Amino acid sequence: MTYLRNAWYMAGWDKDFEAGAPKAETILDEPIVLYRTDAGVVAMEDRCIHRLAPLSRGRCEGANLRCMYHGLLFDPSGQCIEIPGQDIIPKAAKVKTYPVVERHAAIWLWMGDPALADESLIPPFTGYRDPAWAMEPGRMDYAAPAHLIHDNLLDLSHIAYVHLNSFSGGNPASGRGWIDSDTMYKTLPRGVRVSRWMKGMPPSAAGPAPGRIKTEEVMDVWTSYDFLAPGIFLQVSERYRRGEYEVGEDGGPRSGEPVFSTFTCQAVTPLTENTACYFFAYGPWSREAERKQFFADLGVRAFTEDREMIEAQHKVIQSTANPRMMPMVMDKAVLTYAGVLKRLLREEAAGAPSAVA
Q1: pTM for this structure?
Q2: pLDDT tens profile 255-270
């Protein structure tokens, strides 16, 4: 699988990087060390130029990073500025660095040509600190490639089965809404948008707090998500009382006040060919912030269900000679995004500028 390089990949949540503590990561098979300075987070190749020792085992000295094998000291640009016992420092004594931006409570790395790093391509991620939502950030590592997680996020009809006992609350009728409802697809410059109205949905664990509605009250659920390169998932879900909203020209709610709403922001980062990292935050609107932990626990439960299924799927793929997948009707978003990715890869190879998210 080929992944975009001229793109911003999430390396972690802002809270994951403490001052004075080098942290090792691997993205697209490249070992990287990140550390926080007063000016922000620095990212460089996790290999000292001398004996290729990992700089992540080094020591922060102000804004600089010292290799703790033979003491070479590097500044944030990757340039070696001190070699113990050697007065002359070659200009070539420099470690590769990566453009870094801290935004949406996350750390973003540009993995391609630094000269092409375009901050406008950082996705509208929102992040767990946004005051409109009550979300808890998390991370899961996968023993499976990133593109299988992409496919999972692009097609949410699996909620009816994989998440029957989590998001669907054990109610098959709730899960069927993800399959039976009319679904709208829109191709975006760097991804795809998938929206649906799920009419007459029964109460579920991911709905309003008990006591805010009648126990048996059914509602209409509007849910819409964007999946954006290089692996960003942004979804909002809103519950409305039947007949208390109007539908706009875009198919979504034009008027009316939702009874309840949730949001999730997620990012998939390829680590190696067969491993990936999955960052997520999920929760209710801030007016019900007291339910933050409930949704954090529900999210971890459901996302663990995804991981177990995808890792099992990957094992079957690895054991299958010439594995081929048969497209089905639920794969429209998967195939649409595949076309977008193919175009972006083609533009990247040609050196063309990328489209704004």
Answers
A1: 0.95
A2: 999 999 999 999 999 9
